[in-house]
Design brief:
By secondary structure, this protein is α/β, with parallel strands linked by helices. Helices cover about 45% and strands about 15% of the residues. InterPro entries: Bact_Lucif_Oxidored, Luciferase-like_dom, Luciferase-like_sf.
């Protein structure tokens, strides 16, 4: 199992200490968390995209560029890029630039996002989101795969003989499809022969398993070998302690603060309490042993190769504590008992040297 740490850069007052961070302080905290992720030997770091309080993650490529300058080896992910509202030309340019700055460590995850506040900001009606995503994605692929692109559609003015610059370093940049609530996302991923990443954050296992099963069915429908389908999955919040009772006690104030946000209420999770969420949902709250057991149960259901974990909302000291605990007591078991078929290769030839050179220029 490969392990990615995700952040939406949620910036609420700390639920235990009351400490509030300025945006500048929060950006610094996120950069330190990414560096810690690499130093602990975890595999990837991801920044989501949101466009409203309490999140500061409106510009993932900018944040990931700063992280690229401070790291050398971890994969850098977007979780997700809300392509349903973005100009594909701008996205093609921004992420190809980031691909070079990271030395070929970039992977993007596309999706419509799950916060409806971004639609009026970018002039998109919510009912158009799926058609918008499919059209913009088709154009983004062409802009990366081809030169001298001519195109006409609904999402932006026509293009005539356009070659975006820079060209991506990786050919191709790996693309995942974020999957949370609709078979339209799993259909799009299967059609293009690309991996999915299940959000697996707010609902019982059965909802997400149905989407993953649909992805694999459609993968086979398009004539692909089922063993080549790749799935990643999130896991809700992470909080480890020596006993489940201690973990519940320590995490409860954070859970209640998160549940009070408009973003959490929009997700309409059916869980009625923290205990319900831990017993019947994906949250990793408990002892190292119970966390491993839960991940194993989800692995049995999903067959995923990558797990995403998050410590958003905790104090920075607790974030470090939790990630260290996971890396030292959970990750070794996952790697030993749950082999993964992704991220087994090095970045493109010369990319590591380019990344190291960039480190020297910025260090």
């Amino acid at each position: 199992m490969r392990i990615a740490v995700f952040s939406l850069m949620m910036n609420l007052p700390n639920a235990v200490t009351g400490e509030s961070l300025t945006p500048l302080e929060k950006f610094g905290s996120v950069l330190r968390q990414a560096v810690l992720t690499e130093s602990l030997g975890l595999d990837a770091y991801g920044i989501g995209e949101r466009h409203g309080f309490p999140f500061l993650s409106s510009s993932p490529p900018v944040v990931l560029a700063a992280i690229a300058a401070s790291t050398r080896s971890i994969r850098l992910l977007t979780t997700v890029t809300v392509l349903s509202v973005l100009d594909p030309v701008r996205a093609a340019e921004d992420y190809a630039t980031l691909d070079h700055l990271s030395g070929g460590r970039l992977e993007i995850m596309i999706g419509k996002g799950n916060d409806p506040r971004h639609y009026p900001l970018f002039g998109i009606a919510e009912e158009e989101q799926w058609d918008s995503l499919a059209e913009r994605y088709a154009l983004l692929r062409r802009l990366w795969d081809e030169e001298n692109v001519s195109w006409e559609g609904r999402c932006r003015p026509r293009l005539d003989d356009v070659t975006t610059q820079p060209r991506p370093l990786q050919r191709p940049i790996p693309i995942w499809h974020g999957s949370a609530s609709s078979m339209l996302s799993t259909e799009l991923a299967a059609k293009y022969g690309e991996p999915i990443f299940s959000s697996n954050a707010f609902h019982p296992m059965a909802k997400y398993k149905a989407l993953i099963d649909h992805y694999r069915e459609r993968w086979a429908y398009y004539g692909r070998d089922p063993k080549d389908a790749v799935v990643g999955a999130g896991s809700g919040s992470l909080y480890i302690a020596r006993t489940e009772e201690e973990a519940l006690r320590r995490f409860r104030p954070y859970y209640e603060a998160m549940q009070a946000t408009a973003a959490a209420q929009h997700n309409q999770s059916p869980f009625r309490s923290l205990e319900d969420a831990v017993a019947n949902g994906p949250a990793l709250i408990g002892s190292p042993e119970s966390v491993i057991r839960k991940i194993a149960a989800y692995r049995e259901a999903f067959g995923h190769d990558v797990i995403g974990i998050s410590v958003d909302g905790l104090s920075e000291d607790e974030q470090r504590e939790q990630l260290t605990w996971f890396a030292e007591e959970v990750a070794p078991v996952l790697r030993r008992e749950m082999p993964s078929k992704v991220w087994g290769q090095s970045p493109p030839a010369g990319a590591a040297a380019q990344s190291a050179q960039a480190q020297g220029m910025t260090g």
